[in-house]
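FOLDING PROBLEM:
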Amino acid sequence: MSKQNKGRAKRIKNLIVVSSLSAIILAVSTYAWFVGMRSVNVSSFDISIAAADSLLLSFDGNSWSYEVSISKATLEENSYVGHTNSWGGDGLIPMSTIGEMDVDASRMKLYEKASYTPTPGGYRLMSSRVNNYRFTEDVLEPEQDGYVVFDLFVRNFSGTQYIEELNELDEEAIYLTVDSEVTVAADGVADTGIENSVRVAFAQIGRVSGFTTDDTIITEITCSDDSVNKITGICRTAQIWEPNDRDHVGNAIRWYEKSCLQRDGDDVSADSYTSDNCLQVIDGIAYPTYAVSKPISSDDAVDIYDGPVYNTYVPEPPKVSPLVAYSYFSDTMKLLRGTSRPQFMTLAPNSITKVRVYVYIEGQDIDNYDFSSIGKRIAVKFGFTKQRFTEDDIEYERLNPSNNIDINEGLGPDGSDMTVPVITLLPVEEGNPGEGDLDPVTITKGEEYIEPGATAEDNIDGNITNDIVITGTVNTNVPNTYLVVYKVQDSMGNIGTKTRTIIVVDDGL
């Protein structure tokens, strides 16, 4: 196995949140926004998310787990009452956004094509805001079709202190894992470019203390502060991930070269374009996406290729272009090494944060051209980790702790053991409160909680029960819901986790 592939396998182990999506893109009479009149339709998303270490996940603010999954078929089943999640209707329609949030609606501002007309050196663009921000009799209207969006609640219990005041300096850094990627699935068509146009946005809406157990309070978190329920509104600009920022397929480049001419005038008439081709786009070099920042009318005279790196056009002040070279979190940033690797976002310790996740196709991406829809099926996975360094950053050598023998090789066809240890909870012993319970354990206020423990088995190391570390405090004098976390690490660094819920109730309840 090559060193590069081995390193790739190792990095998977540090995932805290991993998500896998697959999408079928219908290729019948479909076109993308960037150089077409119609839309790219997508259906059949399936999303599974797993968490480890000190994060728990939920779609309803009530049921917490290290592993959750959601799909079009289970959207209603998994979502909370009154949710505004959406699976995109008939499919994904190319959108554009700079991640700006609408504080009143607690949603991200998105823009869609309103009109589209060829110009002598490109295509004139008009756009309108997606109708996802209006209220009818104080009730917020549903999200519009054309993109996938759902609420994900992240419970971070890495600390005991919760700071209600919003300050990023008080929050923990979260990194996008180097294994995150968007590719063409096995039954798709490679080299069409559609995989380079996918975007995933993470909009933090607000948060509460990690000790909050009322799911109604958790699910109703908005961008606004609520002193009564101790909700801290966040709604900072959404973090948007751009995969494959250096990848540009040949067909997309040729389409761009064929249709784009340099522009030096303030309208989109023939007099504003020169006979010179636009600046060169080269595969392997990252180029900015000039995303839509506000509604665009015909008076704005916008060409989709506007920008100094494409058709060279920059409006003369005081005119300002509604197209903005948006600073995505890109794969290039994700792959930086060591201390150069930037954080992806931050989460407050001992908190529950409501994150609204958007999956969409960026209509202004240079690879979003007419025939990109032929790609049909794409696969997306992403993950978060609190670890800044990967094993490759420090040239980590895995040693068997018993004899200091290097065991990097010989553990399977890829040379690495990637199987996490399995933790099995033990039931409460006879004679103790909650006798026989596994999870959750219900006990009466004032009774003593006696930790029943767990066992751990590893595929290589065997029984490693003695290595289990148990964390979490249960105060049986205060009725509440408590978590006990079990964690064990095998000799190859694989970490297994399990959680047990302890519910302390008043007498008679």
In short: The helical segments are 3-11, 75-78, 215-219, 250-259, 331-334.
